[in-house]
Amino acid sequence: MIALTLALGSSLAYGCADFLGGLGARRTHVLRTVMIAAPASLAVEMLLWPLLGASLSIGALGWGAASGVASAAAFTLLYRTLAIGPMNVLSPVTAVVSAALPVGVGLLQGEHLGAAGLVGLPLALVAVVLVSAGNGTGSARPSRTALLLALGAGAAIALQLIFLHQAPSDSGVAPLIVGRAVSSAVTLAAAGLMLSKLGSERPAYAMSAAAGVLDSVANLLFLLAARSGDLAVVAVITALYPAGTVLLARSVLAERIHRGQIVGLGTAALAVSLLALT
Q1: Helix locations, the chain, DSSP H
Q2: Are 179 and 65 in contact (CB under 8 A)?
Q3: Which of 11, 31, 194, 231 has the fewest CB atoms within 10 Å, i.e. the most exposed one?
Q4: What is the pLDDT of residue 62?
Q5: Nearest in space to 275 (alpha carbons), one of 121, 125, 161
Q6: What contacts 213, CB < 8 A, 6 or more positions away?
């Protein structure tokens, strides 16, 4: 139950972060948004160091750095994906990929589920797919480029979660700090190389920083959940984050929610209930 609650909190934080980051990236070049979001995340994780501790072992450094590279790719690809839109289609597409890969890794590593989990886990994956089937009548159809970006973002998110899970369980927040430092460095280096192409538009500072802070909170909750539960379960619950993005896109941007997405939200609630019994 602790792992499930933490994973749900991570899912909610990721959904809100993605919405704010995608919205901010509509106003300026995506790298300008990430240049603010990534350091804001790092600042939050540095503040957590005295509270939660950090052991800078070789494993924590290695897996943290790998997660940082994946995080930089995820930030850039995802925010660019959501900037192109429509959010209520593309965000769930990333979730399908980001859920399937960690679930596969968890099962290959020998994780086992009870009877309720064997039903709840497939239902959760079905819920992610249903939420992704959201281009009903009147909704904008995503371009091929947007779909490819969404798939790439999902793979990058999945790798980030897998790498964080592989870090030593006694390393505290060290993998998060190292990962965010690496992702910030990669982002700033990329921005420096592309400075002439970033345009002159001012980024949405508050929105981008808030996205970074929420992403940091989501990463922390995922790390704690993965340390207290199975990766296969935690990853698929975390991957329900598009529900938050879709609902925010509906209320703020008036994007249409397809009937299938509503069914998906109900299926997600049922899946979470079953997984809670595992």
Answers
A1: 2-25, 30-52, 58-84, 87-108, 115-132, 144-166, 174-193, 205-228, 231-238, 242-253, 259-276
A2: yes
A3: 194
A4: 95
A5: 121
A6: 17, 40, 41, 44
